[in-house]
Amino acid sequence: MSTCPTCGAGVATEGAVQGEILTCGDCGTELEVLSLEPLAVALAPETQEDWGE
User: Fold this and answer.
1) CA 44 → CA 27, 30, 32, distances in Å?
2) Cα–Cα separations (whole angstroms), residue 18 to 27, 31, 50
3) Is the distance from CB of 39 to CB of 13 less than 8 angstroms?
4) Residues 8-43: tens digit of each pLDDT
């Protein structure tokens, strides 16, 4: 279990793998699992449109 940095709610991380994107059930914030030992999550990077560039 981890804590959402946006709203402070608990986010289930059981079975998660490094690099996985999780969603907070309370506020909908997307979180990226940075490491498993020790467990660390952070706001997931926002993807931007490429527009063929």
Assistant:
1) 14, 6, 5
2) 22, 11, 25
3) yes
4) 999 999 999 999 999 999 999 999 999 999 999 999
Measured CA distances, 14 to 10, 26, 41, 52 (Å): 12, 17, 13, 38
Could you tell me the two tokens for 22? 């999780």
> In terms of residues, how long is the chain?
53
Q: Selecting from 2.20.28.160, 3.30.160.390, 3.40.50.150, 3.80.30.20, what CATH number does the domain 2-43 have?
A: 2.20.28.160
pTM tops 0.70: yes
